[in-house]
Structures are given as structure tokens and as C-alpha cells.
Amino acid sequence: MEKSVTLREVSSILQMTPQGTGKLIKNQESYIKGNARSLPPQTVRGIFEARGFKYPQKNIMFHAVKGGSSKSSLAYNSAYRISQLGARVLIVDLDKQANATRSFELPVFENVFVDLITGKAEIADAIVPVSPFLDILPSSFKNARMELELINKQHNPRHFYQRIFQSVRNNYDIVIFDLPPDLNHNSYLCSIYATTICIPTNPDEYSVSGTKMTLESLEGLKEQYPDLEQEILIVWSKYDARERNSFHYITDASGMGTAKVMPVVIRSDATFKNAQAERKSVFEISKKSNAREDVDILAQELLGLRDFFTITGNT
Ligand SMILES: Nc1ncnc2c1ncn2[C@@H]1O[C@H](COP(=O)(O)OP(=O)(O)O)[C@@H](O)[C@H]1O
Ligand SMILES: [Mg+2]
């Protein structure tokens, strides 16, 4: 299926009428799908850039010590959405369980991140293109050796990820890292390279303490490298209004320090699981769902589209 967003969706981001947005398309590619006009990523990019929006370069790390807190679901679905919105995206799967990788129907692949650490492969040979504007560096059980290989390697932590990614970094606007639920040497190295650390947190005691622990370790990083410029974002996920404690957790900001709580809450929605079972994103399996609405806002926030077109009123 062709990757696209509707003219209506783009209009609502621009806060313009569909007619007005239609005029911006000029002779760029678009097509009719069902009874709606659809715009492929390069057309969306053309429109946003013509309105003055600059696609940022961001390394976004999905990081949380609780398993099942939505890291892979949000990494994968926001990567998909951000690429639909015209950004060139690389998703890097660093979890040996490879849930993000298994969200795609990939051809046979050989190389994963650990092969880049050992020098067995070049990054360009490990990346697999998956859909327009979206590539993946896949993962497999081989990455179980990652920590061992990192111990054996002499390296400067400050530049370790940068060295691995530098030859391909300019091919992308956004690089999204999906991590396993650990605080270890690899998550430390990745967080040095990250410009944005996104911590999915569920409204339960265990997840909230995990997030506080993650935040403490990031504070340690900031002491070690005071010039690191990074934003730390907490995104509440698996929110269910019927659960009594949910609201209590998400309104209690104590212990969250300087982290910014994102202005979107990802609601509990079976669409995530259903989409995953079909190896599709939540944007492909249904036209309307809570999952789709929430990840759309998350993607726009991460890309900076909402700040640009809504808050500062640049339309
Ligand atoms: N907001 C949500 N609502 C309902 N189910 C979700 C939500 N986010 C994730 N899930 C489901 O929860 C399970 C764990 O999510 P996953 O993204 O793999 O977590 P993690 O990567 O943090 O371990 C998956 O089956 C996924 O489909
Ligand atoms: Mg995961």
C-alpha cells in the first residue's frame, strides 16, 4: 500500500482549509484514494517546507526500564507517522527481542548493531529500506552479545554512537532508537548520542519508579557531560480512564525533575496489538482509532510541527 496522508490531515496541521492546502500542491504528486486526495511523503514535505518549516535533525531514544511500557509500539508507530509526514526516518532496533523489527515484513537480513560494534559490517550494509522515507537497522538475538562486545572495546563514550552513524546520518532527519528495558552500558552510550530521550511511562507504581530511576541516571550523565543538549520527555501510555489510579499517577509530577511531560497521553487501545499482529502500523489498519489519534499527536510533537504551525501561528 502506498504511504500517504490525506489532504484533510495536512490541512488540519497547517490550520488551513483543504481548498487552500490544495492550492499549495501545485504540480506535486498526489492521488485519489477512496474518495480522498492523498499526499505521498515528498509532497507533504514540499508543502511544509514551502510554509517555512525546517525538518529537524533529531536522535530520539525510546528508553524505559519497564518491559511492556510501549517503547517498541511508540518507536515503530511514531517512526511510521513521522515518515508519512515527510521526514526521512531511520529506526534502529537495539533490543535482542526485536519487536520493532518484527513489526515489518523484512527480507532476510544478516547484520545487526553488534556487527557494527565488532567491525564485522558497515552500517550502510546493515540498513534495510522498508517503505518510502523509512529505513530500519534491524535486530536479532545476535544483539544479546552487545554488552560483552562493548566491554571488550576501548572507546570514547562521547563519540561511540556518533562514529558508528556518521557515514549515514545525513541521509535522515530523524533517527529513532528502540531499546530493551535496561540501564546498561549500551543504553548509557545511546543516551549520549540522543538529542531527545522519550520515556514511555504507564500509570502504575512499578513503571513510575522505573522512570524515576531512569531520570536519576540521566542526571548523572548531565553531570558528566554538562554541555550535552538534550530534551527529556515523559509520555504516559496505556492510560485507561476506568482505572482509578491512572489519573492520580499522571497528575502527580513529583520526582520527575526537569523532564517535560508530553502534552499527549497514549490511551490503552487494542489497536496496537491488532496492528502488530498484522505487521502494520496503527495508521494502516483503521481509519479511526484512539491509537491513531494519539500517536499522530506524539509524532507531530516530536517533529516540532505542532509548535511551528499551531503555537507560534506561522500559517
Ligand atoms: N497504549 C497501548 N494500549 C494497549 N496496548 C498497548 C499499548 N502500547 C503497547 N501495547 C501493547 O503492549 C505490549 C507491550 O508493548 P511494547 O511496545 O512491546 O512495550 P516495550 O517495548 O516497552 O516492552 C504489546 O503487545 C503492545 O501491542
Ligand atoms: Mg520493546
What would you say this structure looks like, in words?
- By secondary structure, this protein is of the alpha/beta class.
- The protein has two domains: 52 residues; 254 residues, 3-Layer(aba) Sandwich (Rossmann fold), CATH 3.40.50.
- Helix content is 43%, strand content 16%.
- The protein contains 15 helices and twelve strands.
- Strands 4, 5, 6, 7, 8, 9, 10, 11 and 12 form a nine-stranded mixed β-sheet that branches.
- A hairpin with a 2-residue loop joins strand 6 and strand 7.
- It is globular, with a radius of gyration of 19 Å.
- It starts with a strand and ends with a helix.
- The mean pLDDT is 94.
- Bound molecules: adenosine-5'-diphosphate and magnesium ion.
- The site of adenosine-5'-diphosphate has 17 residues, from helix 4, strand 10 and helix 12.
- The site of adenosine-5'-diphosphate (ADP) has 17 residues, from helix 4, strand 10 and helix 12.
Task: Tell me the radius of gyration.
Answer: 19 Å
Number of helices: 15
What is the third-level CATH name, the topology of the largest domain? Rossmann fold
First-to-last CA distance: 31 Å
Which strand-content bin applies to the residues?
15-25%
What's the architecture of the largest domain, going by CATH?
A: 3-Layer(aba) Sandwich
Helix content: 40-55%
Shape: globular
Uncertain regions spanning at least 5 consecutive residues = none
Tell me, rounded to a whole number, the average pLDDT.
Answer: 94
Number of domains: 2
The assigned structural class equals: alpha/beta
Within CATH, the superfamily of the largest domain carries the name P-loop containing nucleotide triphosphate hydrolases
Order of SSEs, N→C? EHHEEHEHEHHEEHHEHEHEHEEHHHH
Bound molecules: adenosine-5'-diphosphate, magnesium ion
Main sheet overview: 9 strands, mixed
> Would you state the CATH class of the largest domain?
Alpha Beta
Number of strands: 12
